[in-house]
Amino acid sequence: MAFLFIAKAKGQTPGLGTWSVVSSKYTFGIHWNVFFETQLRSQSFYNNFHYHEYKGGVGYNFQKRISAILAMGHYVTYQPDGNFKSPQLGNEFRIWEQFVLNNNINRLKIEHRYRIEQRFTKDGYRNRFRYRLNALYPINNVVIKEKTWYLSFNNEIFLNNNGMIFEQNRMYGGIGYQMNKQFTLQAGFMNRWDNFGQGKQQSKNFFQTVLLFSLNEFKSGRELHPSSID
User: How close are the terminal C-alpha atoms of the chain, in Å?
Assistant: First the structure.
């Protein structure tokens, strides 16, 4: 899948960036789980690291297709032309609630994700609303299980409730491998498009890698739909 680099704007540098994710989840039983995730992003290919975040929370499965999450996290953005170069461009504490609906169309796995964010930034308090459509297609098995290759595609939109409504769009395409019951690897390319209003926009491409670690997932009794919390 190919993406186009559209424009350079404040807060980014040209070229392919990197987006690294490590996500872990522990499942207690049919209903409850806890998770923790951390991310590191760079403006160049594993150089000019300008962003990191960590977040965690608790999840609840209502039934085999519906789940919810309550979480919080810390998100820090630095100058784009160095490694964690000050002064910081953003420092944010965030609380968010999420609902996920899963359904299958034959072997195609579809995830609808709805998220509401309460954002405490250095510029004040903000709300944001996100929707992500995520699709997984196992290649060598009907379902995603041990030693399964799968294709992954998702698109997510970011909306505000005042001022500029449409803020951001993220589009991703890649491939994943379910190594065993605990570990999943995924890699691909993401295009992030930002809208700053007044005709100011930017687009940036990233090479994304994701390592997922899940313990006791079988206790949920649910079909595996591996994806980062992101």
Answer: 21
Burial of 39 from C-beta contacts in 10 A (0-12 / 13-18 / 19+): buried
What residue segments make up the domains of the chain, in order of their start? 19-220
For residue 36 the two structure tokens come to 């923790």
**Any idea which fold 19-220 has?**
Porin (2.40.160)
Task: Return the H-helix or E-strand segment holding 181.
Answer: none
pLDDT in tens, 66-107: 999 999 999 999 999 999 999 999 999 999 999 999 999 999
Task: Output DSSP code: residue 146.
Answer: T
Burial 191-206 (b: 16+ CB within 10 A, else e): bbbbbeeeeeebbbbb
pTM above the 0.85 mark?
yes
Please report, for residues 40, 124, 163, the alpha-carbon distance to residue 198 in angstroms, rounded to integers and kept in the order given: 30, 21, 11
